[in-house]
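PROTOCOL LOG
Step 1. Enter all chains and additional molecules of the complex.
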Amino acid sequence: MPRLSSRTQAIVGSPIRRIATLLDEARRKGDIISFGGGAPSLPPPQEVVDYLADFLRKAPQKTVAYGATRGMIELRELIAEDLKKYWNVSYDPKEEIMIVNGGTEGIYLALGAILEPGDEVVLIDPTYVGYAEPVRLLGGRVRYVPVKVEEDYQPNIEDVKKVVSPLTKAFVLLSPDNPTGRIVTEEFVRDLVKLAREYDFWIIFDAVYKHISYGRPTPWVDAFPGARERTITINSFSKEASIPGFRLGYVTGPAEVIESMEKIKQYVSLAPDTPGQIAMIKFYESGIKERYLNEIVIPTYRKRRDLMYKLIKEYLPEARTTLPEGAFYFFVDMRRYLEAMGRDDEEFSNRLLYRKSVVVIPGKYFGEMGLGHVRMTFVSEPEERIEEGMKRISAYISSYL
Amino acid sequence: MPRLSSRTQAIVGSPIRRIATLLDEARRKGDIISFGGGAPSLPPPQEVVDYLADFLRKAPQKTVAYGATRGMIELRELIAEDLKKYWNVSYDPKEEIMIVNGGTEGIYLALGAILEPGDEVVLIDPTYVGYAEPVRLLGGRVRYVPVKVEEDYQPNIEDVKKVVSPLTKAFVLLSPDNPTGRIVTEEFVRDLVKLAREYDFWIIFDAVYKHISYGRPTPWVDAFPGARERTITINSFSKEASIPGFRLGYVTGPAEVIESMEKIKQYVSLAPDTPGQIAMIKFYESGIKERYLNEIVIPTYRKRRDLMYKLIKEYLPEARTTLPEGAFYFFVDMRRYLEAMGRDDEEFSNRLLYRKSVVVIPGKYFGEMGLGHVRMTFVSEPEERIEEGMKRISAYISSYL
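Step 2. Run joint prediction.
Step 3. Record the structure below.
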């Protein structure tokens, strides 16, 4: 076999994807309770399902035809209206909005459009596993800003200043956050934009959980003065419309960066999924989205979140965590238990799956600051099973102590 | 705005995608006849459409759920059976087959998995526009092997030897070919594999048109001794199942290269489209694929091909071309006309669209050897419109001469 590229030796496979595979296998064997992968457990809106099924039967060829690389203009126009409505920011649907094959492609294309070899990208630690590796794949370097449970995982601008330099090409901000559920403060965004202007770096604002919030909405980076010309915002339909299998999202940014991303996209995926786009056009019709989010998604997830919070306090009184303001996850500092058990977070998670058939994600996967933590999602299981899972975790720990 | 990456300045946007956009606009205005983009003009098999629509209604959440990065194992098992049946080559569905988001992603991931900066990739000239740019995006260099209409666009192994060197990392072979319709000879593949072993380079075999052949099937590179450990084969459902909008294909290769491609794919697109995979599981069921190809696709396209060939001889007697053995295209040497008209192929194509509302693709887009040629697809229009289009081209040329 001829040599492979060294580029893939520098990156690691996503541990969460590995767990998804393990989980698939484990599921066949027995009663697994998953607090693992953050996949929506609700079906998409019924109106959208019916519309797409009808469309497919009536116009099969049109449903599965090639589309433009930037996506359907009708959908981009609806997105512009929607962003205006929710965040009061105007984007030109032709020049400043582009449909992508999921938030993952959005991040990859955004980094591809801006990074030179050696450029630095600042990430918050802990953070989503899907930033550092594409930065490395594209020749960039990663710098980290630590956050702590004691400060509700809120980043401090002074810590950002410590790692920012003329080498900084971008800062990645995920809000609401995975794994911590944090929604960043207005003040932090204001200071970050100021710093970005001073050092002339990009802000990649990952807003894939934007509609999954239980109180105040996330600040919208582009709404801050001076942010527009240096912000690329990543959006996904996976969480807000519960259609992760369509791999569909969208990106907003300055026309020049959208143009660069489009060039790369032509050779990475050619175009986004057409049936998914047809479905999402319906999603924006006459209040479907609002009803779905306000009457189904948010109430369902909020109940589960509140229950899990209560149960963490009850069953894991020595653990420390913070009530997530958004997204799907609790990031739980388990160090007091783990030290007593003499296990690290990965050993704990592996044995918990093996012994009690409960899936949690080791905190170390999200960064050095995640050591001794686990991530538990409340999105995948209904309430009675959340309770059952928490009991099992507690019983497992008790068997040790 | 902070600086953009220089990587996108080195590549050009796909001219055919640009034409697709122009065409969309032109279509609204009038009666455009398209011999342009090679998008299938047939609906997918009815059984597949019905199955997917039912599946979506019955199990919406499952239809649009996240899947594994390599794709559904059931589908990969069916692909393995299918490849065994058609080409008598065995692939391990777990380790040697991976579902990708269309042939485009397959090519990008394959190049990403093997290329180091400065590595050379050998392409045939003319060729599909989607190879040179991703090679450059990934830091590689392109070398060309010219082919000519006089030799039915068949590559000569002696010409390949002239550009192959220790810097050669891969050779890209598309058969059946776009834009020429050429199916490569057994002898050429045998010699190419020998050369690949001698110089230790990869063969990227792009087989996206594998089922679109009007006589003999394309040789299958992996079937040649010594080829398996150095061949990555790109397949697409877009052409054979007429579902380009689902962006779905698959790749076969040695386990190690599939693993590297999977790593990259986690950060490029996470996973392939789930609904499309469900549809393709049905496609392989009980003769659906065979009936669709043998009774609908091939007879329809063959009739159009034969008609267009006859009409080229009749209306463009001074043009030179070759009857395509596969794929969707005629690559037509128009130099005798263009010289008399004092136009190059791009001017000709632009003015033909403007004056006569007929789309053809300038040959220069496919490489230097394509200068003075045009590509005309017979896949998009029914027979009476192929005739009408050819009449318009002839009338346009006559108005000059």
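Step 4. Note key features.
Chain A touches chain B through 86 residues (CB under 8 Å).
The two ends of chain A are 52 Å apart (CA to CA).
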